Amino acid sequence: MRIMTYNVHVWYDNDGQFKLQEMIDLIKLLKPDLLCLQEITKHGLTEFVKQTGFTKVFKYHSVAILTNIENVEELSPPSNTRNYYPRFATVKVPLGDGKEFFLTCVHLDYKVETNRMKEIKQIKKHLSCLNADAAQVWAGDFNALTLEDYSDVVLNEITSVRRKNNWEMPKNDVSTTMKADGFECSWALVDRPPPVSTCRFDTHIDYIYINQDFRKIFEVTKVEHHGSTASDHSPVIADFKLIQTDDTEEESGDQ
Q1: Range of the domain at 11
Q2: What is the 3-state secondary structure (H, E, C) of 205-220?
């Protein structure tokens, strides 16, 4: 199972060049089973889907989940309010033998951690309908740092750059909350292979988080922060292997 997240920056690269075709070619090469996109536009998505061949598209505002897996279902989308414009979508992915997991495509606020924490709270509230032992994946642009991803020297450099540009100082609240809720960064689980960065500011802000119940079903085998420069974000690709149980082994033997 290959899950991928990609902030496509409305199909433009960091230099303002339209890169839709390059992104399409990249997806055709990488062949994700489930693709989470952020910062999409309708006109680009239509051509993207046409050329990549995805048969199921679950779009909500500027985020989308694309797949060819049969019987994937969308959870009821979140509601807009005057002060809340949600940027997430969730689908249920059946695996057979009564197993399933839930994939949430996430795009959090880029400005301040307090806003991101409010959005995390809203997502959790929306997903409170799920069973306590539901296997979950949250993938997307979290716009949040994990401080342990960096050495003291690098973190000091990040802090200095942010101070000079009057940006928010490095925060760890989102990643701490995700961990407290039983989620782990899949990239960290495979010992953080380089490069660290997933965006033009040389920081890691795009994640594929998996919870403990998902890890009972799948083993993470590889995670890559891809080097493509078609967007101002790097694609994050995670490969997972279904854990064989006695039931699945017997089922495989019967086929």
Answers
A1: 2-254
A2: CEEEEEEHHHHCCEEE
| Domain harbouring 158, CATH code | 3.60.10.10
> Which amino acid, residue 133?
D
By residue count, the chain amounts to: 255
Whole-structure pTM value: 0.94
Alpha carbons 107 and 87: distance in angstroms, whole number? 6
- Count: domains in the chain: 1
Residues 6+ apart with CB under 8 A from 76: none
pLDDT tens for residues 59-71?
999 999 999 999 9
Nearest to 122 by CA among 93, 91, 81, 92: 81
CA distance 255 to 250: 9
In terms of DSSP bridges, do strands 236-242 and 218-225 run parallel, antiparallel, or are they unpaired? antiparallel
150-167 residue pLDDT tens: 999 999 999 999 999 999
Please report how the helices 42-52 and 20-30 are oriented relative to each other, as an axis angle in degrees rounded to 10: 40
